[in-house]
């Protein structure tokens, strides 16, 4: 079970890292032109960058506390925060009719639920 939790946390951390880097460092215009990035047209640059920073923090929070053994309760707390982020993403993509992205966000949400339940 512990191995499965580590694998899921690692996968989710990679997803968060990739999303965080793109939202934080890629210009909003390039994000808007990318597949699934159309939602950024209606969002401010600050909002997109803030989501990127939150995703970078999530990538760290899913791995580092358990790895170093300092405040490991932060791993499931981070997973719960990721669940909230994915609910928002699902609502946003659902309103835009991007149902394939809603399904992808649902898969990420399921991983986060597994991590939260397993680590609490």
UniProtKB/TrEMBL annotation:
Asked if ATP-binding is a keyword of the record, the answer is no
Q: Which UniProt keywords apply?
A: Membrane, Transmembrane, Transmembrane helix
| Record's keyword annotation contains Transmembrane helix | yes
What sections of the protein cross the membrane? Answer: 56-87, 99-116
Q: Extract the InterPro entries matched here.
A: DoxX
Q: Which domain of life is it from?
A: Bacteria
Subcellular location as annotated? Membrane
Give the membrane topology, semicolon-separated if more than one.
Multi-pass membrane protein
Report the protein name in the record. DoxX family protein
Natural source organism:
Actinoallomurus liliacearum
